[in-house]
Amino acid sequence: MTKNKNNQAIWNTRVKKKSSSLYKKVGSSIDLDKRLYKEDIMGSIVHVEMLFRQKIISFKIKNKIIYGLNKIEKEILKNKFEFHKEYEDIHINIEKRLFEIIGEDAGYVHTARSRNDQVVTDLKIWIKSSTKKINNNIDKLIKSILKIAEKNIETIMPGFTHLKNAQAVSFGHYLMAYVEMFIRDKRRFENGMTSLNENPLGVSALSGTSFNIDRNYTTKKLGFKKPTNNSIDTVSDRDFVLDFLYSSSVCSMHLSRIAEELIIWNSDGFNLVSLSDKVVTGSSIMPQKKNPDLLEYLRGKTGSSYGNLFSMLTILKGIPISYFKDLQDDKQIIFNTFDTLINCLKILDEVMNNLSSNKKEMTKLAGMGYLTATDLADYLVKNHSMTFRNAYQKTALIVNLAEKNKKKLEELDITELQKIEPKLTKDVIKVFNLKNSIKSKKSYGGTSFDNIKKMILKYKKQI
Ligand code: ARG
Questions:
Q1: Of 262, 269, 290, whose CA–CA distance to 351 is shortest?
Q2: Is pTM, for the whole model, over 0.85?
């Protein structure tokens, strides 16, 4: 048997010349995939345990390999492990070090396994635990939003469509809309678990193996639910990466929407919310400025999240099935998306804890733009047996009149109103009250204060 020379490539008997220095530079992924060391070591330990149970390797060799792998893990944890670029990736770096520690018996670790199934196994384990970290951060953010929502159940503001004042709503209701989005984001991440729970280990390079391995054992030990069904598909498949990137992109898009919303509301034109000094920055020239930079950061970062999703889609579209080097780029994409998203979730959480509503300004703005016009139309339908379309026309005439006389709806005289609709009585005035309008929206999911209270309570118990 040829001895493993540590300073040489594993394939040096076949590929006789050293690869070009340029290839070493671009072909190595160790700087990135060293993040997978824990998953890789865990996978190798379970793999050799299975090889022993199946009588493929001896008890002694299994123990030697596990000893070496545990030692490597400690070295990496203590920053005492030397990563080598020429060994390409985390898998070969660990295998090479194993040879140094336990000698030639390290050569058994790669029996009935290939880096092709090894890397997908590592990645799936990593994404599974990262998904949990993301969802924990989403939970934290939801809790912070619930806290502000609770303080603002009765804070009246204009609800917008087309950014034009539309109908009166509670600020708490607006915030709870984002809670719904983040709850869907969590579900979307959880949905990815079905594919992530299929164990790739044991499909080897692409065709399976002639060794009598037990994939159910490694499945159980590594926390998967079932082994994957087709060996070729398993080493080619990065759909689970796409699912992760898509879920991250949608979550990122929600972060960007709320960021944009808050930037608008924090602008001097709107002035509906204030940010404490902790989450704003100043200007280098304009001494008076307080800028919502953190929110802008969130909005900007959505771009890299989308970019990563599109990079991965593009990488996959061109390659036939089974393994190709193109796939190595998935790590950079996944890690960047994850790091960015975690950062952004933490940032929004911090912003939320440093945000307050400018209640006076909100009510003032809600007093503009005839927010209760729809309430008047509804009132006419209910009290004067009109079709909604007729009531809508009458109300439009009343709004025109108010606009012409530069008055708010509630400032119109009953006699003026009766010129347009003779059946109207003084009773109609209560319809123009913003609080009454909000209270009346009792339909399930509507903005009534009672509805919001119930929703906040429901989610406080749930999360
Ligand atoms: N570092 C490689 C990757 O991430 C591992 C798989 C390598 N397999 C191979 N046949 N070159 O994709």
A1: 262
A2: yes
